[in-house]
Amino acid sequence: MAAHRTGTEVFVGCLAITLSIVATSAIKEPGPVFRLASYYGDHMVLQMEPYRSVVWGYGEKHASIELSLKGNVYTTQTYQGPETEWVWRVTLDAMPPSGPFDIQIKHHSVISNITEAINLEDVLFGDVWFCSGQSNMQFTVNEAFNASLELLETYKYPNIRLFTASLVESNDTFYDLEGVLESWSIPSPDTVGHGRRIYFSAVCWFYGRNIYNHFKYPIGLIVSSWGGTPIEAWSSPDSLEECNITAQETPKFPKYPTFTADMLGSYSSNSKDENTHKNQKTTPEKQRLNDYYEMLESPGPSGHSVLWNSMIHPFLNLTIKGVLWYQGESNAVHPDSYSCTFPAMIADWRSKFHIGSHMQTNRQFPFGFVQISISQDNFTAITGWEAIRWHQTADYGYVPNPKMPNVFMAVAMDLGDPASPAGAQHPRYKEDVGYRLTLGGRAIAYKEDYVDFQGPFPTSIKIHSLEDITEIQYGNGKDEIEVRTTKGFEVCCSLTSNCTALSSDWVAAPIIRFTYQAVDISTKHCAGVPLQAIRYAWKDYPCVYKSCAVYSKQSLLPAPIFLFSIQEDIVTVM
């Protein structure tokens, strides 16, 4: 008897997946047992060569699994998973950037002798970037400058694919996602601009769009972020233990439902803002939207590992190219531990993604991040934002460095946006951020050594005590600098050698002259008191838009923050 096939459309979690049922001795509607993990679906991007992508899902006990792709057939069996369910996993051969392809997965039950099949359609192979952090990563394209034009041009990018995880916290470790906010989607004005803080992440989009424009092969972008959350929530217990941060009693966070794509689906970029929805007659749909924004307006979960458990750990089986991170604002009040927790988290994520993907994700995958920014009326305020920027580099001032290999960053301290409707810590210049991140990605992740990806950083500092001048040399002859203001440098003058960032002995040291590779700053305000340390841009809001003191003349990138004592090797007292 010929096999009978029938097609139907069902929802597994929040992913719409086309199912084909192949029956041998019986025909059966597929139940919830045989299914893919929540982040596989039509239109997805799987990681391309040199890495091998992993596909996994659930099935009956001891069921046989057969996956077909491009004429190749992979077979395996289900095995006991960590959460009592039986799971299966297939590691595909390394694939070049290519597609679209259909992938068929057959599940044969040894209990009922029934074969079911799932067909994944329009699957591409390219680079998969994982984007995480707090509200500035959650900040959506339709909130950024030039949003209208950007959304109109989304149709130019059918080979970029988008996925956004639901916001979920948990004290228990999840093996799979509890919900999906945006299943794998092809860019359009709606899928890229679907409501404030719903989807899609502006920084993640601009980075992915730029990378695609440069390489012209498929790019998959996955967002798992939540505003108002500290790094401790995103770190595993192993990572926190590296920094001697012990378990805490989890702070209570108001219980909200897991918001998924179907729950918020009718709210689009063409809708009026959410305040208008709140003023209209309440319907179940509008109430869900009101609840969603109420959740966003409150500080996010802060308990140790509660977002690692539910929004990072489920992805570990997936093969990825790298990670983008935009976070730090919630740690600015107590910034000192960040110089440990951030490098520790990076190392821990790398190790666990590598192991979880059966050694397919690079053990030292590239990790890019954004130095945080804020704008305010007080240009002299020092409340922790400058310290977080410094600690984001493990107190080196630049990346990559010995504690943070294969890491790149986008400096954003000069992108403050005091008029941002989203607040002073949420600048709308996300296209600038994405551009700067892209330069770092090309140089570090894609090994384009010729790309100038970071602003000038001192190579030597010479203190001419008798002349009340300090010379700061940049660049080792590589790039010219551009000076846009004489303000931004400070020196600490003290009879003791214990100057710290919080000392009261810091005085302004204006630029008095400069060359194409160096600036001379005046230290006459020390008035004969020994100079003990020097720093640059050590303010919450060191300058207005693109108007800090030192930039690269070639790349136009800003010089990052720094802090050096005279005891460090870079400093010479003449």
Please give a structural write-up.
The chain is α+β, with helices and mostly antiparallel strands. Helix content is 19%, strand content 28%. The strands form five sheets. Strands 1, 2, 4, 6, 7, 10, 11, 12, 13, 14, 15, 16 and 17 form a 13-stranded mixed sheet that branches. Helix 4 packs across helix 12. The chain starts with a strand and ends with a strand. The N terminus is likely disordered.
Brief descriptors of the model:
single chain, 574 residues, 5-stranded mixed β-sheet, 12 helices, 28 strands, 28% strand, elongated, disordered N terminus
Strand proportion: 25-35%
Helix content range: 10-25%
Helix-strand makeup class:
alpha+beta
Shape: elongated
Number of helices: 12
The low-confidence parts are: 1-31, 267-278
How many β-strands, per DSSP? 28
- Distance between the terminal alpha carbons, to the nearest Å? 94 Å
